[in-house]
Specification:
It is a single chain. By secondary structure, this protein is α+β, with helices and mostly antiparallel strands. The protein contains 17 helices and 16 strands. The strands form 4 sheets. Strands 2-1-5-4-3 form a 5-stranded antiparallel beta sheet. The chain has a 5-stranded mixed beta sheet with strand order 11-13-14-16-15. Strand 13 and strand 14 form a beta hairpin. Helix 2 packs across helix 8, helix 8 crosses helix 9 and helix 9 packs antiparallel against helix 16.
Length: 599
Amino acid sequence: MAILSLIQSIKKRIMDVFAYISRSLFRKMLLALFAIITFTVSTLGLYTYDHTSSDIKQREIKNMELFSSQSASNLETQMANIKSTAWNYFSDPRFQNFVETLGSDPLAYSEFSGNFSQFVTDHSAVEFIVVTQLEGNRLIKGNINNTDVVDFDDLKDIAVANSGKGVWIPSIAFDRRTGQEVSTLTFVQAVKNISTLSKFPIIGVLMIQLSYEYLKEWLEGLGETEGVNFLLVDSKTETAQISADISLLGKPLERHKDSELLYVSQPLANTSWVLVGIVDVRTLLKEVNELARDTIYIGIACLLGAMLIAILLSSRILTPLKELKKGILAVEKGDYDIILPIRTKDETGYIIHRFNHMAEEIKALILKVYETDLVRKEAEIKALQSQINPHFLYNTLGIIDSLATLHDDDRISLISRSLAKMFRYNISANRTSTMQLELRQIELYLYIQQQRYGNRFKYAIEMEESLYGIPIPKLLMQPLVENCFVHVFDKMSAHSELRIRGWSSSDQEIYLSIWNNGPPIEAARLAELNMLLSQDLQQRREANPPASIGLMNVQNRIKLLYGHSYGLTITSEREQGTEVVILLRKLGEEEQSDETAPY
């Protein structure tokens, strides 16, 4: 009963607190703000802590990798010097003669023995150097007590197998302190007699072994510098060969893998050995974790203070910001006439003032761009419609002159009237016409050409009746029809035929076809024309050849009025004739009102 009473008492107090908060908008905002900031700070703190630790861990890994690379590079430099010395001996004819007569020439023996002793003295990383004949005498200099090398025969066989190419291979050495067999690296190279004209026979072997003690002390020094346990591992067997920790020698590396250990590795060039560094991540990141934790605490304190300051300023900031939000939403909906009241002279008032100014500038800019675009479009359409090839005019006047001179024929009157009607149609102020008027204009033109060609020319026009009232740009088809005469019929002596068809494939799209029975357009020229038709207006202006001005004129007008998806396509095949298809769409009421307005 006591527990139930306590629970009910706590529940009642909680309900009283919520009731107290709910009676005040400010207290509700305060609670909500506190909850939001607390959640945000906690989330950001955990996120920052996690990513900071991860970034520092990655940086430490890169530092270890760089240190390992530099350390391995230092050892590789010493090994390269050893290899270079061996190569100098290999290419020295005197050394070749010395090996071939090893022990026979006391002076040479004394000279090279001294050189080898000095080399071992100058290179602390070298344990000993051995020169031996294949089957005979040998010379050994260095830190070695016995007169033989444990794996001498194996090393010699490897050197002979590589036929003069120097290689680094794992070999057996002795620990001076314990006398036990250990691993190291030995450079072996077969010595050839290259002074003869034969196939350079192998006459001996040169061996230079790295000091196990030197490598072990080198690894210990690396560990002291970076706080990392370094060891040399054979990548083939994946076992530790040399390490400051003797307990790791000869054991597979995977036995020591741990989620709390960090491994970095750097291969030694021209060997099967790898320099491996191992470090305890917890030790590496101990100070980092403490610093990240302290940073989070400081951040939480600062954010809580900022929350209190924000609460004090909310009453002066909240109202102007709400008004600013309403203004932004109004502008997004296209209401650029909105003017927000400026209640203060501080930064908030300045922002609202600049918002009002921005809305005015956007409105002015939109009007300016719209007017500029209309003017540009109108100017381009006027310019394009003014580019009418005068070829037909010259031919027609020539026909009238010839007929007037040679015959007293009524055809002269008909041609003149037809020409007058055409000119009257051309100079009318409207930008667009109907399909019916456009076809009537084409028929006048074809009548005049019929008088010129006589029985050699015939034409047919087939148009869906539903298309007669459709508005289209004025003089859209005439340049294409005229091209049939200029580029085809004028060059034909046989019968010429022209067909004009029109149909609609949907409620919006309209197709117009102009076909002639002339010879096909050359494939290269046809490809060039279709490429020009596929370009935008600026590209066509720059690349348009003069002979295609009528074709490009029609294409440009269609693109400007109907959009980039509409325009001309040309097909031409032997025995099939040439066809130009115009794809248009029905204009909306607003577009019709814009285009039917006078110039």
